[in-house]
Amino acid sequence: MAPNKDTMFRSADMSLTQLYIANEIGREVVSALGELGVMDFRDLNSETTAFQRTFTQEIRRLDNVERQLRYFRSQMDKASIPMRSIYEFDNPFVSPSTSEIDELSDKAQSLENRISSLNESYETLKRREVELKEWRWVLREAGGFFDRARGQTEEIRHSLDNDDAPLLRDVEQHEAAADRSFSVMNIGFVAGVIPRERIASFERILWRTLRGNLYMNQSEIPEAIINPENNEEVHKNVFIIFAHGKEIIAKIRKISESLGADLYSVDENSELRRDQIREVNTRLSDLASVLSNTKSTLDAELTAIGRSLAAWMVIIKKEKATYETLNKFSYDQARKTLIAEAWAPTNSLGLIKSTLQDVNDRAGLSVPTIVNQIKTTRTPPTFFKTNRFTHAFQTIIDAYGTIKYQEVNPALPTIVTFPFLFAVMFGDFGHGCILFLAAVAMIHYERRLLRSKLDELFSMIFYGRYIVFMMGIFSMYTGLIYNDAFSLSIPLFKSMWKWDNNGAGPTATRDDGYTYPFGLDWKWHDTENDLLFSNSYKMKLSILLGWAHMTFSLIWSLVNARHFHTPIDIWGNFVPGMIFFQSIFGYLSFTIVYKWTVDWVKIGQDPPSLLNMLIYMFLQPGTLDNPEAPLYRGQAKVQVVLLMMALICVPILLFLKPFYLRYEHNKARALGYRGIGENTRVSALDDDDDEGHTMNGGRESFGDDDDGIAVITQDIGHGEDHEEFEFSEEMIHQVIHTIEFCLNCVSHTASYLRLWALSLAHQRLSIVLWSMTMKNAFAITGIAGSIAMVVVFYMWFMLTVAVLCVMEGTSAMLHSLRLHWVEAMSKHFMGDGVAFEPFSFKALLEEDPVE
Amino acid sequence: MANGWSPIIGLIIVAIFCAAAWIFAPKGENQTVWRSTLVLSAVSMYLMWGAITFLAQWHPIISPVRNDIRVDPGSGHRF
């Protein structure tokens, strides 16, 4: 059978294929198919858990490599080293061999070790540096304390010996004067640094535990100290505490350490202290050079990694996906072959076969990879080949539901109807131009924009750039029809109206026999009664377009019924539904057009009201609102006939299909057919041979195979449970359908009035914006006028883009979306399909991009 | 210039355009998209112009009334 050409009208022909792959080249085959991206593999091991599958080991190993690559990435981010973009590689999509993967994983391992050891030593060095810096601060600050404290020894002693008799003071004073050393006084001290926010509690605790027996001095370190572990800045204070007695000193040490202070040794002798400072300085400068060496080595290493990291990430990601797919295959122990089942577009089978042949030839294997087509009752997945232009439109439909296999694809007409209905609401030539130019710019810079990171709103607009493009074109057209450009008129042709009283007005008369050729007459702009006219016009426009759109959509249900060979859907659903809809709303549309074509002024008759006509048609069939002035002769009779037709259609719609289905079912049962799952068997037909053949269909090739394949064979039967015919269910379904259809005819027609409401709102809003900004600016003259003009123009333009184009555009788009999803698609869309999710590296990388 | 025949002439032109679009649509895998898009665009644009907007103005029931001219309030009615 020659397969049909795949078009967007119906989803592509799919075949369930079975692949027999030699175990040795399993990985190569799957990776080649991943590059092709046209096969949707079925999971043949759905009962086994992820751990029990064949290639779990490989996946774990690749997970580890992936983690290492992510570690490199985070280290590079930390060191702010850029990664070479994936787009700069010549071809990152060459599939590597197994040994190359092994090499890569070894390389990643050794690089990880190297980076982490470098990191570790860098951190140790950094910690040392911080310690030295703190020590230097302590030495510096403590020097100041000592000098000050020396002058205050008196007071210290005084405070220490507070309770003592003043008699002794002289002696000790003398002694202190002789030798002003603390050690002689048996005064010890503790010096160190502590985070600034802890200083208050530190002091309080010390004071309480030592009962005030201390002298504390502290000062702030002006620069922040960086914690090497987490790169956070900490403000710290230097403190020095003098106290009396060894035990107290020991206690102070313990308290300070427990509060997170770092203690440093300081010599009280100023000479020694100076030496200490000098030593610390030399050590610091040594350390700095070692640090910068380590840092540059680390950076060089990371830069080297960064040059190829993106490619590695892609390779590992693909490799992992390959093994995950291989895990879906079943393994035939006896024959050392992998067996896979996959859905693929029938048109791609040739490509698949040649690719597999290629892989085989490269591997030099004599056993070919076998591709079998299987006949099955399963529903094939729905697949549409889209291009850049159609993709966004297909997404609109897919967002609502997955299209049934081979039913009419609503996305095809949506390419026109979606932007067109949008434009009916958005009609303004100027705003249409803005949309069009924006879309053209996005399409022109497509390649560059695809690669750059976009914010959420813009990326959404960019995704729908071709929709915006079509919207722009149609908005310009409807703008011309409405004669609106930024709410101003476009006098392209001679008007059909002439102001009375030599152009003074206020009334106008028609230029006889002449109708404004394109769009609305511009003379209606800024008139007293323009709303009266445009409301009537736009309301009728909405009804007519809605009728056309719904009739168009309803016809697709006929096309679907013919394609699926279900004539009952034609006679039980389409025909009565169509008659019902046309005899009411088709008639309404006809009367609207008919009323326009009659020259009511000429025949000197008042035009009848269509709304009243419709109401009377239902409430008092056979009588007219105004019997003297009918729309046409015999109107009352025609309306009665139409109403009768509509009413007769309701029971047909309600009962024909379920009763026909019951009749079919009973006929089949009477002939002895049974459902596959039913236990009761007619003994005469209980013939194993026959049964086996009918059930197996075209699968004789492996029908007699052993266990490994039997599993698959069973699996095919599992998914599609034979549906039992249940009359009541069918009836309920049809009742719901009938009620829905009939009510929806009314509510959906009314729903199209949103076209009128939104286009009216859009037009009024742009008029208000113009009259509040630009019109005022035109009124000012002179230099002030030109300055005001520039300012106001910018304001007006920004508001036009932000409010009228973006906001109003979004709302019009949402309304158009609803008209498609609800009003149009409810007429024919079945939407119980299964999405086609091919195993494709391209899709994989798009979903989870490496950047 | 434009009279009652305009929508009919327009219809003929659109029909010719649709036929041409159907026949001359670029061959290849996007032929269906070209055909459907061109034909539907032509039909919907025709509907908007000829079948709706033109007909609505063919035999107008109301005529425009200027609002930039103040009618003397004494004259009894204001538009």
UniProtKB/TrEMBL annotation, chain A:
A molecular function (GO) term: ATPase binding
One cellular component term from this protein's GO annotations in UniProt: vacuolar proton-transporting V-type ATPase, V0 domain
Pfam family, one: V_ATPase_I
Statement: the UniProt record of this protein carries the keyword Transport: yes
Key words, A-Z: Coiled coil, Hydrogen ion transport, Ion transport, Membrane, Transmembrane, Transmembrane helix, Transport
Ranges for region Disordered: 684-705
Protein name: V-type proton ATPase subunit a
Membrane disposition: Multi-pass membrane protein
GO annotation (BP), single: vacuolar acidification
Known function: Essential component of the vacuolar proton pump (V-ATPase), a multimeric enzyme that catalyzes the translocation of protons across the membranes. Required for assembly and activity of the V-ATPase.
InterPro entries: V-ATPase_116kDa_su, V-type_ATPase_116kDa_su_euka
Transmembrane domains' residue ranges: 420-445, 457-482, 541-559, 571-594, 640-660, 777-797
Compartments, record wording: Membrane
Source organism of the structure: Delitschia confertaspora ATCC 74209
Coiled-coil segments: 101-128
Family: Belongs to the V-ATPase 116 kDa subunit family.
Keyword Transmembrane assigned: yes
From TrEMBL, chain B:
Keyword Ion transport among UniProt keywords: yes
One Pfam family recorded for the sequence: ATP_synt_H
Membrane topology: Multi-pass membrane protein
Record GO biological process: vacuolar acidification
Subcellular location: Endomembrane system
Cellular component, GO annotation: endomembrane system; vacuolar proton-transporting V-type ATPase, V0 domain
Molecular functions (GO terms): proton-transporting ATPase activity, rotational mechanism
Main location as per UniProt: membrane
TM helices/strands, residue ranges: 6-25, 37-58
InterPro entries xrefs: ATPase_V0-cplx_e1/e2_su
Keyword terms of this UniProt record: Hydrogen ion transport, Ion transport, Membrane, Transmembrane, Transmembrane helix, Transport
Family: Belongs to the V-ATPase e1/e2 subunit family.
Protein known as: Uncharacterized protein
Source organism (scientific name): Delitschia confertaspora ATCC 74209
